[in-house]
Amino acid sequence: MPAVLERPRTRSVRPRVSPPAVTRLWTSEAFLDWLEPGVHADLINGEIAMHSPVNLNHARLINFVDALLRAYIEEEDLGELHRETVAVRLSIRETFMPDLAYFTKTQAARLPETHVPFAPTFVLEALSPATAKNDTGRKFAAYELHDVQEYWILDPQKLDHRFYRRSGDMLEEFAEKEAVIRSTSIPGFWVRREWLNPAKPPKVSECLKQLLARRSGKRR
To answer: Per the confidence metrics, is the pTM higher than 0.85?
Structure first.
């Protein structure tokens, strides 16, 4: 019987399939252990959201408000102001690093050496393309739920700034279109809307003089 010649078997090469990504919900404790100096991120509903590098308009706007508000708080002895290097733990699945966070003197006396385990009185976030959706959505809801008294959302690009204050269980908008925005949680602090333009920021020293002059006048 003639031998049957078998065709050589060709080995089929299948494309490698990456294993499915495992969704992990982080706790605030695990997130805080993971954080390192220089890393800026938020834990939102158990998911890590990294902060992307900001543009100069964003940086200029935050630098201006930081310098003005910090000098005012120091002059009036009102508490402490912190930038996004400080992590604020709101719940088991939520830990944020706000652009600016103000703590009253009573709150400042309770601040530990590491993260902050309670909500600030005042929070300011400046929008960027990477964070805008969270700042106006999930983080807004968390600040509202955890008793932040005042929340400013500044828009360095469109200058569509929004200001919210505590009203019962909600944060409601105030000072819409107004030329002067008066803080409801930082005694005597206010800004002119025109100051919040990073393309032409005023001198912090001149703005502070106006704030303190108005403040001292009310004390008489």
So the answer is: yes
Question: Beta strand pairing status for 122-126 and 150-154?
Answer: parallel
**Contact between residue 186 and residue 122 where contact means Cβ atoms under 8 Å apart:** yes
Query: Using CA atoms, how far apart are residues 154 and 173, in angstroms rounded to an integer?
Result: 13
50-54, 103-107, 129-133, 180-184, range with the lowest pLDDT: 50-54
Local structure of residue 197 (DSSP, 8 states): -
> Please, are residues 212 and 75 in contact by the beta-carbon 8 Å criterion?
yes
**Domains of the chain, start order:** 28-219 (3.90.1570.10)
Backbone angles phi, psi at 87, to 5 degrees: -90, 135
**What is the crossing angle of helices 56-76 and 204-219, to 10°?**
30
Question: Taking residues 79-91, what's their average pLDDT?
Answer: 97
Whether the CB-CB separation of 198 and 57 falls below 8 Å is answered with yes
Amino acid in the structure at residue 6: E
Of residues 109, 78, 98, the one with CA closest to residue 188: 78
Token digits of residue 113: 């050496």
Question: 30: how many CB neighbours lie within 10 A of its CB?
Answer: 15
